[in-house]
Write a structure and sequence with these properties.
Shape: elongated
Structural class: mainly alpha
Helix content: 55-70%
Distance between the termini: 69 Å
Largest sheet: 2 strands, antiparallel
Number of domains: 3
Oligomer: single chain
CATH class of the largest domain: Mainly Alpha
Length: 266
Amino acid sequence: MTTTVKSAVAPEFYLSEFAGMLAEVRWEAGLTVRALGRAIRHHHSRVVCAEQGKTQPTWQLTVEFLRRCGVSGDKLLVWSTLWDITRQAERRRKGQVRGSLQPDAEFWSEIQEQWQRAKAQLSWPDSLVTKLRMVSTKRELGLALLELGSRAGYTSVRQIADRGGVPKTTVHDWVIARRLPDAERLAALVKDLGATRDEWEEFAAALRRLSGQRCDAVHEPSARPCMLSEYHRGSHRTLRGDEWLDDGTLDGRRLHQASVRLGVHS
């Protein structure tokens, strides 16, 4: 007797869903079918076929499609997983998998779980976005720029500078925290390095935070001022490394050190 899994969706779902998601990405990027086709040097009919779900596009076409629409980084890896799941589903649906010992019901149940997990990951912030949201020093901004360059295959300051058409000495000064980047130059460079829309927006936000005036908070136990910019995120920090929040709370390590300096023992 054949068993079925009630939660499993129709085998045709994955190709149709994948195609619809591609169309949504293009729409969000503000591109027409013809404009996208010209940008990736493919006839627009191939873009139409990819979005209608008649056949699964090759991964090469898919990645060119996605990159032109601003998808990169961690999100591109998730799309790779979704493409592979779609390919497995189509091969199974068409009977192109031979010699498989896995029952259909079990296969489709696993495929559905993998698909739902991967789709959920598309809503997760990129790891670089998370780091950028915590940037509070010029050095941290420089490290984020190096990470973006490394992800794009540019492992040296010279390669990053050449890719964006920025003098090497300028990028070097940014990376070692000698000076803050110019907003327009930084925006152009991170886009050239393949930053997603969320990433370049967070680079811009981090630069705005660092360009503000110095924070006026004072660490009461030591009477030292916060070394960070006016609009920094997270805890305050002195040059000596003391950290505290607006309510005066220190982290465990610093709280213990402060207690020792003040002669307070638990």
